[in-house]
Write a structure and sequence with these properties.
3 strands, three-stranded antiparallel β-sheet, mainly alpha, about 240 residues, binds manganese (III) ion, Helix Hairpins
C-alpha cells in the first residue's frame, strides 16, 4: 500500500466525514477548504507530501522532489515560525527597529509555505484536462485550455530570477488571471486566490533539467492535476 492509499484508507477508517468528500487531497486541507498550514495553536506545520517521492517520475525526479520538499519548503516553514516569533518578541519591547526586517522575512517565508503547499497538490502522475465549470471559465477568460497553458508556461519560463507562474481566481473582478510572481511574494494582486502554481526556482529543476527551465515547465504541463485546480476554483468562487 503506498502512502496515498494508506491515507485514503485511514481517512475512511477514521470517519473522514468532516473533510470535504470530493477533495483530491483531503488530508492537506481544512474543513473550510483551504490548505492546512498551521496546527491548532497557529504554528506553521510542514505536512508530508501527499504521495511518494517517486510519484512524479520521470517528469520530476525523486531526488529533486525529496530535497525540494524537505529543505526548501521545510526551511520556509521553519523561517515563518521564527519570523512570527520575532515579530511578537519585538512587539513586546519598546524598540520597533527590527519589525521592518522580520515583517519582510515573514512575507517571504509564509508566501513560500503557501505556494509550495499548493504546488504539491497541483501535480499528479497522469495527464488530465480541465473539465466542467473550470473549463467553461478558462474558455471565457483565455479562449481555450491550450491558450491558457501557453500563457502560464510563457509567464513561468520568463520569470526574472527566482519565482512562480500562477493561475489565480480574482474575486474582485470575478475572473481568472495569470500572474508572474518574483521570489514568493512579489508582483501579486491583492485578493487573488492561487489555483495552479508553477515553481521555477532553480531548486525545482536544476538536478535533472540543468539550465533548461523551459523543458521543465513544458514537462510539468503533462502532470497538472486539473481535478485539484477545479476543486480550488470551486472553493475560491465562494469569495465572490
Ligand atoms: Mn520551491
Amino acid at each position: 500500500m503506498d502512502r496515498k492509499e494508506f491515507l485514503t484508507t485511514s481517512a475512511i477508517l477514521s470517519g473522514a466525514a468532516i473533510l470535504p468528500s470530493n477533495s483530491v487531497f483531503a488530508e492537506n486541507i481544512n474543513n473550510n477548504g483551504i490548505d492546512k498550514l498551521t496546527d491548532e495553536t497557529g504554528n506553521f506545520i510542514h505536512l508530508p507530501l501527499p504521495y511518494n517521492t517517486d510519484h512524479l517520475e520521470p517528469f520530476m525526479d525523486t531526488e529533486t522532489l525529496r530535497l525540494h520538499h524537505t529543505f526548501h519548503h521545510g526551511g520556509a516553514v521553519k523561517g515563518a515560525n521564527k519570523d512570527l516569533g520575532m515579530i511578537k518578541k519585538v512587539m513586546k519591547s519598546n524598540d520597533l527597529t527590527l519589525t521592518d526586517y522580520w515583517t519582510k522575512k515573514l512575507s517571504f517565508h509564509l508566501s513560500s509555505h503557501i505556494l509550495h503547499s499548493i504546488f504539491w497538490t497541483n501535480l499528479a502522475n497522469k495527464k488530465s484536462q480541465p473539465t466542467g465549470d473550470l473549463l467553461k471559465r478558462i474558455e471565457k477568460d483565455f479562449v481555450s485550455t491550450d491558450k491558457m497553458q501557453g500563457l502560464i508556461a510563457k509567464i513561468s519560463k520568463s520569470v526574472e530570477g527566482s519565482g512562480w507562474g500562477i493561475l489565480a481566481y480574482q474575486p474582485y473582478s470575478d475572473n481568472l488571471v495569470v500572474l508572474q510572481c518574483e521570489n514568493h511574494q512579489k508582483l501579486t494582486v491583492w485578493g487573488a486566490v492561487p489555483l495552479l502554481v508553477i515553481d521555477v526556482w532553480e531548486h525545482a529543476y536544476y538536478l535533472k533539467y540543468k539550465n533548461r527551465r523551459g523543458d521543465f515547465v513544458d514537462a510539468l504541463m503533462n502532470i497538472i492535476n486539473w481535478d485539484n485546480v477545479a476543486e480550488r476554483y470551486e472553493i475560491a468562487l465562494k469569495l465572490k
